[in-house]
Design a protein that fits this description.
- This protein is mostly beta strands.
- The protein is 7% helix and 38% strand.
- It has a four-stranded antiparallel beta sheet, with no helix packed on it. A four-stranded antiparallel beta sheet has the order 8-9-10-11, with no helix packed on it.
- The longest helix is centred in the last third of the chain and has 10 residues.
- It is elongated, with a radius of gyration of 22 Å.
Length: 313
């Protein structure tokens, strides 16, 4: 099933196999700015950019389960549901983040100084990130233990909606589009990007991380990929089957980034020892030598960027 909504559209539920609309929620006057599934796939929520209309929870048959609306309810710009289904997180009135426990109705409000353009939640549901038009990304903990957010910068965002995402094992990385047509990647522990990728010729509005898995036997296993898109440009993914080789495609791979192991890798080590190149930021795991099989498995899963094996415990 697929949920769709828009600034001038109502919420619709589609059957992706037949392409038919199974249900339209609300009425034509109910404009929906954002929507999200609950993890049980039986409930969904949507938020309206119209003040007072608030947030609605429905089942897949169009029955209203719960609603948060009224004169005190501000417009909803974005929302998300944590993977455990316990918390509903929404962006209200440009600068507020509300974390609501849907079972106990306990809520917490986080205030930002600058307008928020988008919201994303980590896979484990412990953290959230928001993009601000002040050219910063802020990460907050959902449990409410932090007094201040972790901040990330380097990308460009002035007037358009830019959406970021978590990625990697335990959501250790953050990726975001940018108005300068590039994709920025941060380690969660550092405010500065560890990598900048080329995007579209125009701005990159949104990014989405996907863990790679072993697919069909005749396909190359994807070790994790990052899809990004721009308004007006379609995002496509082409599975690299053997037929692509027959039609003239070329696959290339390198060890040590193309450096020669005997003559050039020692030069890289020397540069690293002098702190002239960055390597530590790319290390996601530290394991012992007896755990080498685990290291290989993490690499096959796409969960490990770089791993250091300690010869002695």
């Amino acid at each position: 099933m697929l949920l769709t909504c828009g600034n001038v559209e109502v919420l619709k539920l589609w059957d992706v196999e037949t392409g038919t609309c199974k249900y339209t929620f609300g009425n034509p006057g109910f404009t929906v700015s954002s929507c999200a599934w609950f993890p049980d796939s039986n409930r969904l929520v949507c938020g309206s950019s119209d003040a007072e209309k608030g947030i609605y929870m429905w089942d897949c048959e169009g029955n209203e389960i719960k609603a948060w609306r009224g004169t005190r309810m501000p417009k909803v710009l974005d929302l998300a549901v944590t993977p455990d289904g316990e918390n509903l997180i929404s962006v209200l009135c440009d600068k507020e983040i509300r974390i609501l426990n849907v079972t106990t109705n306990a809520e917490r409000v986080i205030s930002e100084e600058h307008p928020i353009t988008s919201l994303s939640v980590s896979v484990d549901g412990k953290f959230l990130v928001v993009n601000l038009n002040s050219q910063e990304i802020h990460m907050w903990d959902v449990a409410g233990k932090w007094e201040k957010p972790l901040k990330y910068n380097g990308h460009k965002q002035h007037k358009y909606v830019i959406r970021s995402c978590f990625g990697g094992l335990n959501s250790m990385f953050i990726a975001s589009g940018s108005e300068n047509s590039q994709v920025y990647i941060w380690n969660r522990k550092s405010p500065d990007p560890i990598e900048v990728l080329s995007g579209h010729s125009m701005m990159v509005n949104c990014v989405s991380e996907q863990f790679g898995t072993q697919q069909k036997q005749n396909q190359v296993p994807q070790l994790g990929s990052l899809a990004f898109g721009t308004v007006g440009i379609a995002v496509k993914r082409y599975p690299p089957g053997p037929f692509y080789l027959v039609t003239g495609r070329v696959w290339k791979g390198t060890a040590f980034g193309g450096f020669k192991s005997r003559s050039q890798v020692p030069w890289l080590v020397e540069k690293y020892m002098k702190k002239e190149i960055k390597i530590d930021e790319y290390i996601t795991h530290n394991l012992t030598l007896p755990e080498i099989n685990k290291a290989f498995e993490l690499m096959r899963q796409g969960s490990c960027l770089r791993c250091v094996l300690k010869m002695r415990a």
